[in-house]
Design goal:
Blueprint lengths: L1 E2 L2 E10 L2 E8 L5 E3 L2 E2 H4 L3 H7 L1 H5 L7 E7 L3 H19 L3 H8 L29
Length: about 130
């Protein structure tokens, strides 16, 4: 895929209700999330580390320019969806990364989501308070 003569690999990541699409350019550059730098978007250092886990395992931090568009969910699930999208796009660059990323669990989509509310209940399983009289 090309856009303005720039090569990039594309990856999609999802977690709960958060989705992320990542473009990984094969050039040095900074990582942006929703047109902000990574540290400005995720103010918490642990979320930054979570989003960059796939790059840290493979010692590739600083080798790629990454742009991510994410929406939905909370910040933690957005960070996890970015991690999955980066891992998927790294495999397109070099298929040998797959064994390392798969053993760490970075290629598995976490399917857990919020359970739906049932009729007659306050929440998914919470029943109304019982009163004798």
């Amino acid at each position: 895929m090309t856009k303005n003569n720039e090569q990039y690999k594309y990856g999609i990541g999802r977690r709960k209700t958060a989705t992320c699409s990542v473009r990984l350019y094969e050039e040095k550059g900074e990582i942006t999330v929703n047109d902000k730098t990574l540290n400005d978007y995720f103010k918490n250092k642990s979320l930054v580390d979570l989003a960059l886990d796939a790059l840290q395992i493979l010692n590739l931090i600083g080798k790629y320019k990454i742009t991510a568009k994410t929406k939905g969910g909370g910040l933690k699930s957005q960070a996890e969806s970015i991690r999955l999208a980066i891992a998927r796009s790294l495999i397109k660059i070099d298929p040998e990364y797959k064994t390392t990323l798969k053993s760490k669990g970075f290629l598995t989509r976490d399917p857990r989501s919020k359970e739906r509310k049932k009729p007659g209940l306050k929440k998914a399983r919470r029943a109304p308070q019982w009163a004798k009289r």
